Amino acid sequence: DLKARLHRPIVLVGMMGVGKSTIGRKLAAVLKLPFADADDAIVEAAKMPITDIFDQFGEDHFRDGERRVIARLLESGPSVIATGGGAFVQPETAELIRARGIPIWLDSDADTLVERVGRNSKRPLLRGGNVREIVTRMKAEREPFYAKASIKVMSDAGPHNATVNRILEALE
Ligand code: S3P
């Protein structure tokens, strides 16, 4: 079966708001695998919220910590890992994920992303701007990076279970 054939972590990549954490948690439950959220692990390691890391130390410092945390999570054997939207855009981090994991790009249209991120102030890159504009521009800029994932799955508006099933089919 699928689980027995998985020797590496499944790593969900893609834009903010696409549902990486929610879908990752459900996928892990179905496969009976451990789940890890890289953003949560960063917050735990830094002992401060992501906005504070950005404000006090800058994005480069955050990306550094993000890479180290993801490198550690990738060592835990078969599992499901949800990453922050910028992780797979960082060349070194993406390299690690491709070498030691199975990257899956979750994609959806900009409208769905905008609706899902809402007015979430926990996302430093969405503060102080028009969310629709930022998300649309960022999605266009990042697509070439996300496209380097081995598998692409659409995460449309609607129940996340459908997306989980699509991932399972893609992995079969
Ligand atoms: C970021 C996405 C966030 C978080 C940080 C930066 C990004 O994660 O890592 O705010 O650069 O897209 P989510 O994708 O879970 O929102």
From TrEMBL:
- Which Pfam family, any one, appears in the UniProt record? SKI
Cofactor: binding details: Binds 1 Mg(2+) ion per subunit.
Substrates-to-products reaction catalysed = shikimate + ATP = 3-phosphoshikimate + ADP + H(+)
EC number(s) given by UniProt: 2.7.1.71
NCBIfam families from the entry? PRK13946.1
Q: Does the keyword Magnesium apply?
A: yes
Q: Does the keyword Plastid apply?
A: no
Record key words, sorted: Amino-acid biosynthesis, Aromatic amino acid biosynthesis, ATP-binding, Cytoplasm, Kinase, Magnesium, Metal-binding, Nucleotide-binding, Transferase
Family membership noted in the UniProt record: Belongs to the shikimate kinase family.
Q: Which pathway is this protein engaged in? A: Metabolic intermediate biosynthesis; chorismate biosynthesis; chorismate from D-erythrose 4-phosphate and phosphoenolpyruvate: step 5/7
Q: Which domain of life is it from?
A: Bacteria
Annotated source species: Alteraurantiacibacter palmitatis
What is the official name of this protein in its record? Shikimate kinase
Ranges in a coiled coil: none
Q: Where does it live in the cell?
A: Cytoplasm
- Quote the function comment for this protein: Catalyzes the specific phosphorylation of the 3-hydroxyl group of shikimic acid using ATP as a cosubstrate.
Q: Which residues bind Mg(2+)?
A: 21
CDD domains named in the record: SK
What gene is behind this protein? aroK
**What cofactor is needed?**
Mg(2+)
Q: Which PANTHER family match?
A: SHIKIMATE KINASE, SHIKIMATE KINASE 1, CHLOROPLASTIC
